[in-house]
Amino acid sequence: MARVSIRLRLDFGAACAVGPGKIALLEAVQTSGSLSQAARDLKMSYRRAWLLLDNLNTSFTRPVAVLATGGKGGGGASLTPFGSELVQAYRDFEQDLQKEAEQRFRRIGAQAATGAPSTGTAPVARRRLSRTTAAVSTRGQRGAR
Fold first, then answer.
1. Helix 20-32 and helix 46-59, axial crossing angle in degrees, nearest 10
2. What is the mean pLDDT of the chain?
3. Domains of the chain by start residue, with CATH
4. pLDDT band, residue 87 (cuts 50/70/90)
5. Cα–Cα distance between 105 and 22 in angstroms, integer?
6. Do the Cβ atoms of 27 and 49 come closer than 8 Å?
7. Which residues make Cβ contacts (< 8 Å) with residue 72, sequence separation at least 6?
8. pLDDT tens digits, one per residue of 125-138
């Protein structure tokens, strides 16, 4: 049976969205204490990470993270209590949705072809699309004038 997976994106308005990438960045900042290390861990440029974090900080009325500039002791980054709350709420909701999707789509997932012939895995029996007699005759009627 194919495993159903959820990719969650929450839109809080036209200019405020949170999805798996931003949440992963926040978690990496929380783990490393550094935006540059978080960017390296996620294999993204520092600029991209900074822009995502800046977007999050300006999308809400409260900041999700704070940055300390470098210097003798070095800089750093950390989540605010609101940022930690955002990550936790997102992950909890994602987990709830995952369980719900697995339950609701269990029967359908059992019918999913799990191997992709183009990846070199074992071929999967699939049915090709074909026109039925009714579809052909209907199409012919629509095109006739």
1. 110
2. 85
3. 10-109 (1.10.10.10)
4. very high
5. 27
6. no
7. none
8. 666 777 776 555 55
Burial class (CB in 10 A: 0-12, 13-18, 19+), 28: buried
Whether pTM > 0.70 for this model: the answer is yes
> Are residues 65 and 50 in contact, defined by beta-carbon separation less than 8 angstroms?
no
Q: Is 115:124 a contact under the CB 8 Å cutoff?
A: yes
Residues in Cβ contact with 2 at an 8 Å cutoff, skipping those fewer than 6 apart: 109, 110, 112, 113, 114
pLDDT in tens, 16-59: 999 999 999 999 999 999 999 999 999 999 999 999 999 999 99
